[in-house]
Amino acid sequence: MGKLLIMIGGFLLVLGLLISYAPGLISWFGNLPGDIKIVDERRSIFIPITSMIVISLVLSILINLFSSLK
Fold first, then answer.
1. Which one of 9, 14, 24, 59 is least enclosed by Cβ atoms within 10 Å?
2. Are 50 and 64 in contact (CB under 8 A)?
């Protein structure tokens, strides 16, 4: 349990550093084909379907790689 929390903390640290110092690396988020943007006069709706699928695939691959290292 402790190793998992350390890995999650390390991942969040790296993600925070990427967002702070290299925002261009994640500028693709929300701009992929399949992401829905609806802009109206009074409201805007954003549904990042394709971006969430990509993130889910990447996280699944990383979790499977780290779980096989035991």
1. 24
2. no
Distance, CA of 70 to CA of 49 (rounded, Å): 33
- Please check the confidence at residue 16 and state whether its pLDDT lies above 70: yes
Residues 6+ apart with CB under 8 A from 34: 49, 50, 53
Tens digits of per-residue pLDDT, 43-55? 999 999 999 999 8
Task: For 8-47, give one letter per residue: b (16+ CB within 10 A) or e.
Answer: eeeeeeeeeeeeeeeeeeeeeeeeeeebeeeeeeeeeeee
Domain ranges, ordered by start, for the chain: 2-67
Tell me the whole-structure pTM to 2 decimals: 0.63
From the list 54, 57, 56, 59, the residue with the least C-alpha distance to 34 is 54
